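Page 47, continued from p. 46.
Same chain as before, 290 aa.
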Amino acid sequence: MKLTNKHGIPETFMNVLKRPTYSKGAAHLSATQLLNSPKIVALSKKFDEEIEQDVSDMVWSIFGTAIHNVLEHGKDDNHIVEQRLHAEIDGWTISGAIDLQIRKGETISISDYKTTSAWAVMNEKKDWENQLNIYAWLAEKVKKETVESVSIVAIIRDWSRRDAATKEGYPPAPVKEIPIKLWTFEERQQFILDRIAAHSACEFAMETEGDLPDCTPEEMWEKPAVWAIRKVGGVRAKSLHSTEEEAVGILEELGKGYEMEHRPGERTRCENFCQVNTYCQQYRDYQEEK
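Result:
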């Protein structure tokens, strides 16, 4: 990957990114890659030397790494920090670096640190549940120890004292531990096998120069098109509707003083956060349709 510095950020930030400490070890896929879109993973590998990323887009990842390093100093005698585990399944080696394991008698609890936004905490990501359950599978598979619970420790970078006092459901403090649903061992293993199958199919398509499997709406962070009803001249919608027919019906009920606005859908990740969108036929087709 080629690092750029379009905004003149101090060179020390560039140096940190040029000297990464992360490694997935001798694994086909890390837990985070396993969860990622197979197409993005495959295209990232193929075009790694051509992909450009600006240091300004990676500042919060640096901050997250720094938080991890600081919190290592807070470990107790029954804590295991930053342990990377590897396990083979269906011919693939999967790895995961577990931020924190706490021994509780004959069981362990697993936690993962996330430097994230208040919005993410209030709208928990499905990927958090998936990732923690992969870690739980690795721990039980490799260490033969029972995982009692899993959780996310969210460090909220945009936390606001005012919002905590006035908004319902807003995190009350800048750090919040979020319990995550723990699946059965069999459920975890089947999920991993399903993800391996998806990545395997994509790799085969890449090797045989076939069509790569499309990213799913969830993987593209797709927001569907909606029809908004609002007061004439207003900005905020009174209601949102998935079809034009439904919106027209509501507009007729409300009568004068209201108008309808079509809000096109968007693929947020594709347009703003995907490093390989220029190499993606699916994205090019989407742009042409727009």
